[in-house]
Amino acid sequence: MSSSRIDSSLTDASRMLSASPTPGLDAELLLAHVLSKPLSYFYTWPEALLTQEQLSSFQTLVERRQAGVPVAYLTGYREFWSLQLKVTEATLIPRPDTELLVELALTIGLDFPQNQSDASPIRVADLGTGTGAIALALAKEQPDWEVTAIEKSPEALDVARENATSNGISNVDFLEGSWCSPLVENSMDMMVSNPPYIRDDDPHLKEGDVRYEPLTALISGSDGLNDIRSIARESLQVLKPGGWLLMEHGYDQAKDVQNILSLAGFIQIRTDTDLAGHDRVTLAQKHITQ
After folding, report:
1. Would you state the pLDDT for residue 115?
2. Angle (CA) 231 232 234, round 5°
């Protein structure tokens, strides 16, 4: 980068990041991080000059991004829902597609109060919480819900706890464990999860941001469905009669996930699509008489 003007520096950085799907946005997010400024600052003060230290820091981040390191790992955070979440290499990077899972859970939750005969709070578990993105989004939108976030990685669980604190969210309990193992039978009204669902030989594992993300949060056996099978089997025991399970999955896995849920004994099974029109979340209900 030869110029220290903001607009010229961003242009140079975008050119360097041309291999990225979003070179301009990547450059802006990295410079905003260096300057501790909102993106709007660049449009208000495009001619402002960077100090040599700022320019050097920006150059370093751009070079690391050029090498493939995800922007979220370089800045240490990612926006999700209305939250700013800390992200580390121990966690999966929250993605916009997963907001569909939050939207569906909130919609289903609207039907629960009229069916809560004892007026007890709605109890929701987020399985494999990672940064806490799903659990914290639900807890923020519904402060009367009792949300439990489960994660088998102690390092990721620490990040989720930090994110709860930094976002001022107090109605989430954090438990270490694998899927439903920390939970008791018939205790949850709803369970949500964005589990690993990529095949272990998927060529996309060698491309883009996923190269740097923890494999345990991405891959799940030869067909990508091992963890989804486990969750379907275990959650049926933990859900209350009439409770709901919602799981994110790959765009081409809807029929397989539906079959897994049907064989496990769930009813009212359906799949919803994301903004791109791809099958993204399948949800199912535990039989009311179980």
Report:
1. 47
2. 60
